[in-house]
Amino acid sequence: MADKKTFLELLKNKILVLDGATGTELQKRGMPSGVCPEIWASENKDVQKAIYKSYSDAGSDIIYTCTFGANFYKLSQYGRTDVENINSILAQMAKDAVAAGKNTFVAGDIGPTGHFVDPFGEIDFEDAVKMFKRQVKGLLDGGCDLFVIETQMDIQEARAALIAVKELTNAFTIVTMTYEPEGRTLNGTSPEAALVTLQSLGADAVGCNCSAGPVEMLKIIERLKPVSKIPLVAKPNAGMPKIIDGKTVFPMGAEEFSLFAEPFARAGTNIIGGCCGTTPQHINLLAKELAKHKPVLPVAKDIITLSSATEALILNKKSSLQIIGERINPTGKKKLQAELLEGKLSLVRKMAMEQEAAGANLLDINAGMPGINEKETVIKIIDMLVPWCKLPLVIDSVSLEVTEAALRKYPGRALINSISGEKEKIEKLLPVAAKYGAMFILLPIADNELPENAEKRVEIINDVFKSAEKLGFTKNDIIIDGLVMTVSSNQQAPAETLKTIKWAAENGFSSLAGLSNVSFGLPERKRINSSFLSMAVANGMSHVIANPGEIELMWAKYSSDLLTGKDNDALSYIKFASENPDIDTLPVKKESPEKKPGNLKETLSGKNPVYNCIVSGNRDDIIDFVKTALENNTKPSDILEKTMVPAIMYVGELYESKKYFLPQLIASAETMKKGFSILEPLLKDKNSSAKGKILFATVEGDIHDIGKNIVILMLRNYGFDVKDLGKSVPAEEIIKIAKEFKPDIIALSALMTTTMVKMPEVIALAKKEGIESLFMVGGAVVTKEWAESIEASYSKDGVEAVKVASNLMVRE
User: Fold this and answer.
1) Which residues, including other chains, have CB under 8 Å from residue 656's CB and lie 6 or more apart?
2) Are 639 and 609 in contact (CB under 8 A)?
3) Are 694 and 747 in contact (CB under 8 A)?
4) Rounded Cα–Cα distance for residues 279 and 54 (Å)
């Protein structure tokens, strides 16, 4: 295995060249459709070795092993479970193929499983880590020099794979995500959020591959460069695929592809190759062009970065005051305590949504109270919030075990509240923060010492920072807690806090205060809190732990931002003022939610609990609310037609406008399904027949069914009778079942360019056998033009599938 330093030194002097496509090269050399590429390659060694060597000879500095799908979940679909063995064989073949040639490195290739990892899907996170470790072990045994985790559309799956690699080896590791045309992953993760999460977790290079040609991918690289602290990677397709004479063709030739070397190099891409449709000729010309350009090296940025599963929070010294929402904490909250003891999270969900809507920038999560399993509860809260909350989370626990479990599971870069100068925190918690790439709040207290003056606090801060620096932390990874004490017991306490905050700002640190402590025991606490906030901001405070729902505090926040030059043109202040007029003025008339379909907060405030549950994906309470509606003599048909269907239609609007993404769509659809289970027995005898019958299958050779399953869920929610045939279904089997089921529509799905060509085979066989069903097709690689060319209707996702299917039923 090559040392990590080897690659870092190489990257200082040149842009490294990756290989091109493997699947299309295998097909050219005789691999039949419908087989597992990894198994076929391992059994046809001369063919695969020739592909490895062709890319090495073409100029690749790094070639990928043919192990993209060599994980347990995919191999088991073909009856093989010897994961380590297959990965080892294919890696050793790569090493053998390039041994006699130039100095070409071999990257152990880890692709997606085809399933989502929780909290986005059904695969347990730790099971995913264990599964990827089996693949890593095989690749290590085969002699890989480095690792690449590629074509990831689920940030949590990418994290599981990265943790698997890091816990077994210190090898240089690349992670590349794949993005939809609108610039986000299928789960809604932005490129910036993925970069912040992965580079913090320990990826050595991050970027993107597949799903886009050079033009589209270049835009993503340009977005990433200002945030990246590590090398960037691009592996675009040779354009977008077209079907010509029944074959998948990528239109961009080698010469045209190579012309993008210059713009990619200029944008700061450090590692470049090709994905689908690229050949050794593409790579050869690309390598020659890249040799003309010097690398643009990543540099340390003076920015603070945190991330949720979908969004990045990127701050600098000129950023406005950041609010850390404090409400999700059971201390002194009897109702929240009772809910947590019962295992319910409805109030947590409500508090999170309210704080986000009120202007919080981060959310503090605390579940410390007697009588509950704190670790289990915190993980449940994270799992519930992740698909819905765009804000990064702050993990607030005195327990090392709880904090570590939360950091391991959270699919973003979290902030720890807090790490002090206490020996146990330095020796045990600080390394955990480093392992998972978290930021932390530095609490300036030490063992048996609660310093009252700023000078002693600064001593503790410096001691903790020295220990943190040794683990790779910088000042931008730390927020200093000013240590607020109540003014009622010590009138000098606020001044010492302000001194600490000022020192932090003057020495390059961010800082915060737990605002409400200052006023403890006094009347009109909000007045004191707001005044102290303004004073702290004037001294350089960057964050505050507070309740964003307190209007007086928020006035102080926006006023302070304006007066300290952190609100350009007073735009934020004016916006807040227009939304929160003084009580002496007339209230601003707001449009109804129906006129503003994108305004989730207003929509929810004006609807009933069943509607709200579906729109917010609240699976915990939907059954109780449906039963309550029935007890109040609401007709089952009215609950369905006047509440549930409009709710899921609104979710569809949010999804189409990209305010919701796949996790929210799934959660809302499953919530409706759960609620409908109560109504279904009451509607069976009274309901009209289904809207139509649909036979659904993923075509032969394609073992991906994420998209199909989501579409089926949506169709069933809208009243269609859907028969699911599963994945990799031969045309003959589809037609055989169609004769028995007599569907109005046959729906076909494909995720790969190599399998989408099976769709016209199914349609041709249906015509030959006299099947009169209409056809609807979709999938990541399918286009409207392709659908029309095979005389089928096209739907891009579950929401559109409902509309297309409904229109087809009208046409019938």
Assistant:
1) 799, 800
2) no
3) yes
4) 9
Work out the end-to-end distance of the chain between its first and last CA atoms, rounded to an integer number of angstroms. Answer: 62
> For residues 734 and 736, what is the distance between their CA atoms, to the nearest angstrom?
5
Residue 494 structure tokens: 């606020």
> At 401, which helix (H) or strand (E)?
helix 400-409
CA angle 686, 688, 693 (to 5 degrees): 140
- CA 113 to chain centroid, in Å, comes to 16
**Rounded to whole angstroms, how far apart are CA atoms 46 and 39?**
14
pLDDT tens-digit profile of 141-159?
Answer: 999 999 999 999 999 999 9
Type of residue numbered 1: M
Q: Biggest alpha carbon distance in the chain? A: 90
3-state secondary structure of 14: coil
**For residue 410, what pLDDT is reported?**
98
Amino acid at site 253: G
- Give every CB contact of residue 169 below 8 A, 6+ residues apart in sequence: 1, 136, 140, 147
Query: What pLDDT does 49 receive?
Result: 96
Read off the DSSP letter of residue 593. G
At residue 354's C-alpha, the angle toward residues 799 and 323, to 5°, is 115
Cα–Cα distance for residue pair 53/41, rounded to 1 Å = 14
Contact 40, 26 (CB under 8 A): yes
Distance CA 380, CA 276 (A): 39
H-state helical runs in 76-213: 83-98, 125-141, 155-166, 191-201
Q: Which pair of structure tokens corresponds to residue 446?
A: 């030490």
Counting residues of the chain whose pLDDT is more than 70, the rounded percentage is 94
Q: Is the CB of residue 605 less than 8 Å from the CB of residue 350?
A: no
Say if CB 693 and CB 721 are below 8 A apart: yes
* DSSP helix/strand/coil, 446: strand
The residue behind tokens 């600490």 is: 500
Tell me the pTM.
0.89
Mean pLDDT of 185-202: 96
Whole-angstrom Cα distance, residue 26 to residue 572?
Answer: 56
The answer to whether the CB of 746 falls within 8 A of the CB of 758 is no
